[in-house]
Amino acid sequence: MTSEISLFVNPAAGRGRGAHAAQSAASALRTAGFTVSTVLGLDAEDALRRARGAVRGGTGALVAVGGDGMVNLALQAVAGTSTPLGLIPAGTGNDFARALALPVRDPAAAGRLVAAALRGARLREVDLGRAAGRFFGTVLASGFDSRVNDRGNRMRWPTGRLKYDLAVIAELAAFRPVPYRITLDDGSPLHTEATLVAVGNGPSYGGGMRICAGADLGDGLFDVTVVGDCSRATLLKVFPRVYAGTHLDHPKVTVHRAAKVELAAPGTTGYADGEPLGPLPLIAQCVPRAVRVLVR
Q1: Is 131 contained in some domain?
Q2: Do 219 and 253 reside in the same domain of the chain?
Q3: pLDDT (tens digit, 0 to 9) for every residue of the chain, 296 residues total?
Q4: Domain shared by 102 and 167, yes or no
Q5: Which one, of 87, 94, 96, lies nearest residue 115 by Cα?
Q6: C-alpha distances in Å from residue 257, one per residue of 88, 193, 224, 262
């Protein structure tokens, strides 16, 4: 394995933490004897083009510095190749790193872990989801949570967590369950009224919200969490339980497992790794062992 490593950086991640995290990670990697180059882009499209160029050029690893959005971009470059992916979490969610039990608060420690993993060839092959021509690592969300994202993306003020909280309040006032058509693998479609449907390759989204708490990155299957036709009062009781994953015991919640899922619902956007995929219908396919990740 070459000692030349590419840091794929979003300097603005975590409201500026990305730039500091990149410096800490680069220092740890150089101390371990690696040559580090930085991959930046003018925008997401340009950044992905440059990352793919680094992979084609034979970089020893592509190390994503940022949040789940940056990891999602990196996945498009390394999925299906032999190039390992390293993670230096610096965003607000960092759910893919959480699923792999990697450091999410200490960029220097994450950099040392990546260096040690490269030296020891400590790699784990994990599954990815694929929908609308894009890979994703954590959860494809639709319904109440995606409407919160839609609303938050339209809001110019405030910023950060407060914007998300205000979007939740606004959606609670306006939201009604919507009719879904859910097709698992090649079976008959399930028609149901649902508050949200989440397709989990990994267990969590939104910074540790364990919406698909039983999802396993290595089993070749999605966990599909369906929250039924909740009233606002029920949703207020159930939603806080998502952080512990105990919402799965609620009678309004069902979980299915499948390698392929088709979701259709009117007026509903799908988000994967927090990034918009577009309106439903969408088909998600689990791709086994699609990426090699540097781990403990």
Answers
A1: no
A2: yes
A3: 568 999 998 866 655 677 888 898 999 999 999 999 999 888 899 999 999 999 999 999 999 999 999 999 999 999 999 999 999 998 878 999 999 999 988 888 999 999 999 999 899 999 999 999 999 999 999 998 887 777 777 777 776 556 667 777 777 777 789 999 999 998 999 999 999 999 999 999 988 889 999 999 999 999 999 999 988 888 888 878 988 899 999 999 999 999 999 999 999 999 999 899 999 999 999 999 999 999 98
A4: no
A5: 87
A6: 30, 19, 6, 13
Phi-psi region of 14 (alpha: psi -120 to 50; beta: other; left: phi over 0): left
**Could you list the residue range(s) of the whole structural domain that residue 28 is in?**
4-121
Output the pTM of the full model: 0.92
Question: Residue 130 CA to chain centroid, in angstroms?
Answer: 12
In a domain, 73, yes or no: yes
In a domain, 294, yes or no: no
| Tally of domains within the chain | 2
Is 147 within the bounds of a domain? yes
C-beta neighbour count of 38 within 10 angstroms: 14
